[in-house]
């Protein structure tokens, strides 16, 4: 990761909890513009909460999230929605909704009481469905879709939002190997071809190392380490964060590090 790249998002001294339970503890994290940042760490460490805080779905007890230098707390809801999109873990919608109806929901931040649906909205929805490969399923009910098809439809909804920053919480969870690759290749194209800033939560360290520009290890509500995958994928660091002994080898195809776990530390 090139530290000279400007940060699109700055998480500063962020503390956040649920009742008396502290989840994020004075956490700091820069998210570089135009790169893919992957958050990884043990279950319950605060990754999903951090992602939701970036989208202002949880108000912090202290600290701030800055977007292009501006505190997101000062932005109106739809204005923030036009700049940051979020696909949460296990989203839900009525099963009789069509794919096109689902994707059209992504245009909500662009709507106003006196502003009718426009040709630009149609183009955004059509482009999002085409880019995710679901255009031919536009009139299918989402209850009839496979897991991979449904996940692509949800991602299309986020793309229709046309935000420059896209946050995806475990987007490949419950998908088979082929659909995991399809999803992450799509995300990579959005980043490389359109310059979108991407923030992902992934559990699979090897997928994280393959696709990340910046890999961030979160543990105990804090950022324990961050950097390029080649720097982060170290046996000692993985043992510290995940309590697992492992061997690190080089993927001969993609030239990225691979973690081979041995056992719990």
UniProtKB/TrEMBL annotation:
<dbReference type="GO" id="GO:0006826">
    <property type="term" value="P:iron ion transport"/>
</dbReference>
<dbReference type="Pfam" id="PF00005">
    <property type="entry name" value="ABC_tran"/>
</dbReference>
<keyword id="KW-0472">Membrane</keyword>
<keyword id="KW-0410">Iron transport</keyword>
<keyword id="KW-1003">Cell membrane</keyword>
<keyword id="KW-0813">Transport</keyword>
<dbReference type="InterPro" id="IPR017871">
    <property type="entry name" value="ABC_transporter-like_CS"/>
</dbReference>
<dbReference type="GO" id="GO:0005524">
    <property type="term" value="F:ATP binding"/>
</dbReference>
<feature type="domain" description="ABC transporter">
    <location>
        <begin position="9"/>
        <end position="245"/>
    </location>
</feature>
<dbReference type="InterPro" id="IPR003439">
    <property type="entry name" value="ABC_transporter-like_ATP-bd"/>
</dbReference>
<keyword id="KW-0408">Iron</keyword>
<protein>
    <submittedName>
        <fullName>ABC transporter ATP-binding protein</fullName>
    </submittedName>
</protein>
<keyword id="KW-0547">Nucleotide-binding</keyword>
<keyword id="KW-0406">Ion transport</keyword>
<dbReference type="InterPro" id="IPR051535">
    <property type="entry name" value="Siderophore_ABC-ATPase"/>
</dbReference>
<keyword id="KW-0067">ATP-binding</keyword>
<dbReference type="GO" id="GO:0005886">
    <property type="term" value="C:plasma membrane"/>
</dbReference>
<comment type="similarity">
    <text>Belongs to the ABC transporter superfamily.</text>
</comment>
<dbReference type="InterPro" id="IPR027417">
    <property type="entry name" value="P-loop_NTPase"/>
</dbReference>
<dbReference type="GO" id="GO:0016887">
    <property type="term" value="F:ATP hydrolysis activity"/>
</dbReference>
<dbReference type="InterPro" id="IPR003593">
    <property type="entry name" value="AAA+_ATPase"/>
</dbReference>
């Amino acid at each position: 990761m090139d530290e000279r790249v400007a940060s699109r998002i700055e998480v500063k001294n962020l503390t956040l909890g649920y009742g008396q339970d502290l989840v994020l503890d004075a956490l700091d994290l820069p998210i570089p513009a135009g790169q893919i940042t992957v958050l990884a760490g043990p279950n319950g460490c605060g990754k999903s909460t951090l992602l939701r805080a970036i989208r202002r779905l949880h108000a912090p007890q202290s600290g701030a999230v800055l977007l292009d230098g501006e505190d997101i707390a000062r932005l109106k809801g739809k204005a923030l929605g036009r700049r940051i999109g979020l696909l949460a873990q296990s989203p839900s919608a009525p099963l009789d909704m069509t794919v096109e109806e689902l994707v059209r929901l992504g245009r909500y931040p662009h709507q106003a009481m006196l502003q009718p649906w426009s040709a630009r909205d149609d183009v955004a929805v059509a482009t999002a469905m085409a880019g995710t490969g679901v255009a031919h399923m536009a009139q299918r009910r989402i209850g009839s879709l496979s897991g991979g098809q449904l996940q692509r439809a949800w991602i299309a909804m986020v793309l229709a939002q046309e935000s420059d920053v896209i946050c995806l919480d475990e987007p490949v969870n419950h998908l088979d190997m082929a659909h995991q690759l399809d999803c992450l290749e799509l995300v990579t194209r959005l980043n490389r071809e359109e310059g979108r800033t991407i923030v992902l939560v992934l559990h699979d360290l090897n997928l994280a190392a393959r696709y990340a520009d910046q890999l961030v290890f979160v543990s105990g509500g804090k950022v324990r380490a961050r950097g390029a995958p080649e720097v982060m994928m170290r046996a000692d660091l993985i043992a510290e964060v995940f309590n697992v002994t492992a061997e690190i080898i080089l993927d001969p195809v993609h030239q990225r590090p691979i973690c081979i776990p041995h056992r719990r530390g």
